[in-house]
Amino acid sequence: MRIFGFLSKKVGDLTVKYSNLPESYIKRSYEQVYWKNPTGYPQYPKAQVTRKKFRFTTNRPWTAQFRQQNETGVLRKKVFLEPVGEWSFFKGDRVEVMVGKDKGKQGIVTQVIQERNWVFVEGLNTHLRVVGKDKDFPGVTVQSEAPLLVTTDVKLVDPENLKPTEIEWRYTEEGEKVRVSLASSRIIPVPKSAEETIDYKSKDLYIANPDKDTSADVVTKITFEAKLRTFEMDIMESMGIKEDRVPAKSYWY
Amino acid sequence: MNIVFRNNLFKYVATTCFRSQLTATKLNVSFNRTLHTSNVSHDLMEFFDDKKNWNETNIKVGRAWKLDELRIKSNTDLHKLWYVLLKERNMLYTMEHECKEKVRLFPNPERIDKVQESMKNIETVVRERNIAYYTLETGETGERPVEQVVNRFGLKENYEKSEYIIPKFMNKKWVRPYLEHGLINSLAVKKFYRLYKEKLHNETRKARNRDYNHVQQLLKRFPDMDLEKLKAEYPNVDIEKAMRTKKARGHYFPKY
Asked: According to DSSP H, which parts of chain B are helical?
């Protein structure tokens, strides 16, 4: 449908991977369809009136806070994103901050928000904010990190000499796509914490649901046999259903 | 669906060796929807979830079955998996409805999407296998015949043919005069077609202008941007032309 084509460009694939949710669900959770033409009437085309401009923030698209920030009638100024090309920053990467008061310091990426080209580095580029200030209560001061732009503010660090470098995506001899630092031609591997999602920190730590999940060996077991049968014929054979009747001649028009 | 068939299915499910193994091995593959063969028949209560899940706020479940994982399975396995997924889907929809009625939180609604995706993938695999057989044995696919026709609005449409016992010339009730010349050459249809094409043209023109304006704004705000990446994202925009415009001029002295 037209609307899926529109919305699919908005949410980054790292966000989809991190959420561990099916794409159709994510689209369903944040789309706002105001009017949809009824189906089954040839005179009404498949048209709908939906919201097209969303403001992406640290609140992920399937959350209620995102819904609140993108309420009906709430219009925000457009955010211009520099084209990044292939995304090269993952959770757990060591990066150096190039701007701000923490310029020159290195840290580890804790959060990646592709929709705004943002990266949050642990403990760097922080500011203090007071939480829960009341009449009686003075409030708690919290140090929170501000986002850094992937294109300008942050650079990946070469693991060999711990200096910031430009990187390129190249293929190894095995055919694997890796990041290579242009200064020393050393491979910067994608960190293990990049495979973290909301449901599990890493794939081996995931605990299967005993009632609903199928284990990996059962899934990868090959039971297919190439037979010259249709699906229905195969099932009938295995169930012992015999059909000798010949269908009458029918016409298709 | 007749009763005999259903009973056979259950017998198969009970005797099969398809048990979901609680693993000892390291699982490289993320988990999937199951062949859950506990085969308990709680009659109508199967429409509802396990009682211990009724007050849960987060029920963790693996991802949907992928196409490649289903293609290596036999037809009987796909057949059984379809019914397992169908029952799961019914259960999820019942729980969703019930939660709405009782004004409670329905935990993890993405489970429905996962089941739907798995079922869609099973259908794709089964149709692939059937099409392969029919195109090999007969010339055509065994699917419902579809013909591209011009409908009464003058637009191309996929007309799905129906099955009849009597041939076309004998069938007095079946009439499709609008498809055979005649009305699609009328003034009204021609006018509609003209206006519809104008509407589509306007949409493409606006999209083109929108992209061009967006590129101009990007050039204004990001003077040191990688132009190749910009070209990759907006292949239909003339970036050289955009750079020469007034809108793309930034508030700095241009580099020569």
From this structure: 3-15, 67-71, 75-101, 110-137, 187-221, 227-233, 239-243
Q: Is the pLDDT of residue A208 over 80?
A: yes
What is this model's ipTM?
0.87
pLDDT, residue B178, reads 53
Whether B10 has its CB under 8 Å from any CB of chain A: the answer is: no
Burial class (CB in 10 A: 0-12, 13-18, 19+), A117: buried
Give the model confidence (pLDDT) of A6-32 as tens digits: 555 689 999 999 999 999 999 999 999
The tokens for A225 are 């046999």
Distance from CA of A140 to the nearest CA of B (A): 30
Interface residue A17 vs chain B (CB under 8 A): no
Identify the CA nearest to A247 among candidates B96, B142, B251: B142
Under DSSP, is residue B244 helix (H, G, I), strand (E, B) or coil? coil
SS3 content of chain A, % helix, strand, coil (to 5): 20, 25, 55
Q: What angle do CA A209, A59, A125 make, to 5 degrees?
A: 115
Query: Which A residues, 203 through 232, put their C-beta within 8 Å of a C-beta on chain B?
Result: 203-204, 206-225, 228-232
pLDDT for A30: 92
In the structure encoding, which two tokens stand for residue A98, read together?
Answer: 């190039």
The Cα of A30 is separated from the nearest Cα of chain B by a number of Å equal to 13
Q: Residues 167..186 of A with a Cβ closer than 8 Å to B: which?
A: none
CA angle (A223, A229, A230) in 5-degree steps: 95
Q: Are B159 and B146 in contact (CB under 8 A)?
A: yes
Give every CB contact of residue A207 below 8 A, 6+ residues apart in sequence: B60
pLDDT tens-digit map of B14-28: 333 233 322 222 222
Which of B197, B236, B239, B195 minimizes the C-alpha distance to B217?
B239
